Amino acid sequence: MTDFTFLLQPDRGQPARDIHVVHPDTYEAWAAEQGPRIRAALAANRVTGKPGNRAMLPGEDADDWSMLLICNESLDSPWRIASLGDGLPEGTYRLAGNAPVGAAALGWLLAQHRFTRYRKSEPAPHRVLLTDDHAGIEQTVRLARATAYLRDLVDTGANDMGPAELQAEAAALADRHSATLAVTTGDALKTGYPMIHAVGRAAAEHRAPRLIELEWGDASHPRVAIVGKGVCFDSGGLDIKPSAGMRLMKKDMGGAAHALALASVVMQAGLPIRLHLLIPAVENAISADAFRPGDVLPTRKGVSVENTNTDAEGRLILADALTKAGESDPALIIDFATLTGAARVALGPDLPATFVNDDALAADLFAAADAVKDPLWRLPLWDGYDDMLKSDVADMVNAPDGGFAGAVTAALFLRRFVDAGTPWAHLDTFAWRPAAKPGRPKGGEAYGLRAAFELLRRRYPA
Q: Which of 220, 336, 369, 420 is found 20 to 30 A from 103 (Cα to Cα)?
């Protein structure tokens, strides 16, 4: 992973090249104030004041230059100068006029991250940004590391990121932060976590299903459970996906990646909580022992579930994990899952469909999301659709027929496994960026990670 440690440094007046960030609305006035050499450079670079225009501006000496960026991003956007983070020569930079860097430091760092596991990469030039926010450097670097870690996990091929590898990632975090790790694997799941076992039992032995649990922090502190869907590859099971639908299913463990990344930054920040991380990790494979449409599955909760679609497996494994999380009387449960295509149809890739059973928690979560510009969109836990989960032979089905309100009915299914008095947020996140943007390459992506951390940081300040 990219080492961000030295790419963001306190500004103590050391030599650095200036970056001029100019809004399109003020470009003409700014340009009119410049001398003839700079105006000539603007003309040569065809700078017209449109967002994204840029140019190197000459100084007095041959090696004296600064950078201009025309940008319409807000001052609190993490991505304000991200387009320069991977395009400038190696060196040290500051915003012109000692303008505050603020949130833009995160995008600067993430623009320099590369996923290089599967190909050779030339050493990356180090582009250092100076900031007057000396106290904020550590937290910005933490968030950049967590985001890059999440991206790397999702970008890794399923052949190298199965249930055992997710366990290894959790074990590494536990070792790093003196946490405890407990893993229930294979046939041992049958009695305690029967739906995790049912979904994962068709996989090869070395990719056996498991529930991974990490606990950290003082037992006297408020207990917070973070749950992440860890379907390391989703064939769809016997309700097999078409090849186009399977193409990106290495990312179906994106919920687990979010949970691991959030746990890592919580522990690094030393938040005063008792952290309970739970990752049900499986491969939804096809074999003679695969679970079937029409099977009635027992659950840890004690209710029975008629399986109407083997491709609606994520909610099954999450249900057993959520039940386990609730048994320790947590103050809060947050789960992340790449759960439904319906959420993507409704909201696209950038907005995690967010379901919350507590209005006070919802207000805090969305205020946190707005503060760090990590957008979420609330969808309803609409009681009127709860009847869609009725079964003729069991207590409930996992996936209603008809396809109406698919993200909502999936969330309602999960709600059955959360105690009504426990504040709970469910983020149906895509975990993938289909097209690159500055600081955000195509591939695995964090959606809702910073919002969730900001919520916890505000509720439980270190």
A: 336
State the burial class of residue 430 (Cβ atoms within 10 Å of its Cβ: 0-12, 13-18, 19+): buried
The model's pLDDT over 2-25, given as tens digits with 9 standing for 90+, comes to 889 899 999 999 999 999 999 999
Indicate the helix (H) or strand (E) that contains 369.
helix 359-371
What is the third-level CATH fold of 8-132?
Leucine Aminopeptidase, subunit E; domain 1 (3.40.220)
Q: What's the pLDDT band for 87 if we cut at 50, 70, 90?
A: confident
**Which residues lie across from 304 on neighbouring strands?**
298
Contact 318, 427 (CB under 8 A): no
Report pLDDT for 124: 79
d(CA 446, CA 151): 7
Q: Determine contact, residues 363/255, Cβ cutoff 8 Å.
A: no
What's the confidence (pLDDT) of residue 86? 86
65-70 and 17-22 strand pairing: parallel
* H or E stretch at 324: helix 314-326
C-alpha to C-alpha distance for 4 and 146, rounded to whole angstroms: 11
Measured from the Cβ of residue 86, the count of other Cβ atoms closer than 10 Å reads 18
Task: Sketch the domain layout of the chain as residue ranges.
Answer: 8-132, 142-459
Residue 76's pLDDT band (cuts 50, 70, 90): very high
> Annotated active-site positions, please?
241, 315
Q: Please identify which residue in the block is written with the tokens 């609606």.
A: 312
State yes or no: pLDDT of 1 exceeds 80: no
| CA separation for the pair 399, 420 (Å, rounded) | 22
Pick the CATH number of 142-459 from 3.30.70.20, 3.40.50.1100, 3.40.630.10, 3.90.1150.10: 3.40.630.10
**pLDDT (tens digit, 9 = 90+) per residue, 309-318?**
999 999 999 9
Task: Give CA separation, 233 vs 176, 240, 285, 288, in Å.
Answer: 27, 12, 8, 18
CA 276/CA 256 separation, integer angstroms: 13
User: CA of 319: how far to CAs of 182, 192, 209, 260, 449, in Å?
Assistant: 18, 12, 15, 19, 21
Select from 186, 111, 187 the least CA-distant residue to 147. 111
402: closest CA among 415, 393, 389?
A: 389
* Average pLDDT value for residue range 153-173: 98
Residues 6+ apart with CB under 8 A from 298: 194, 195, 304
DSSP for residue 406: H
